[in-house]
Amino acid sequence: MGRAMREGMSLRRLTMVAAGLATALLAAEPAVAQSRTAGDTFQPWHSVMYRSVLAAVPSPDGSQTAFLRSSPRRPMEDDSGRAWVELYVLDADGREVPFVTGEVSVGRPVWLGDDELAFGTRREGDARRAVYRISTRGGEARKLLEHATSIGAFDVSPDGRWLAFLAPDERDADRAALRRQGFNQEIFEENLTFTRLHVADLHSGEGPDDRDVRTLDIDGSLRSLRFAPDGERLLVGSTPTPLVDDGLVARRLQVVDLHGTVRADIGVEGKLGRADWSPDGRHIALVGSVDRNDPAPGRLMVVSAEGGTPRDLLPGLEAHVATFDWRADGTLVYVTDIGAETEVASIAVDGSDRRTLLPAGELVVLAIDVGSTGEAALVAQTPRHPNEVYSLAAAGGEAARRTTSNDWLADLRFAEQTVIRHEARDGLELEGVLIHPLDYEPGRRYPLILSVHGGPEAHDRNGWLTGYSAPGQVAAARGFFVLYPNYRGSTGRGVEFSKISQADATGPEFDDLVDAVDHLIDSGLVDGEKVGITGGSYGGYASAWGTTYYSERFAASIPFVGISNAISKMGTTDIPQEMYDVHHRKWLWDDWEYFAKASPIYYVTRNRTPTLILHGEEDPRVHPSQSLELYRQLKVLDQAPVRLVFYPGEGHGNARSAARLDYALRTLRWMEHYLQGPGGEPPDSDIDYAAYLPWTEAEKDDDEQAAPQTTDSGAP
Question: Hey, which end of the chain has fewer CB within 10 Å, N or C?
Answer without folding.
Answer: N
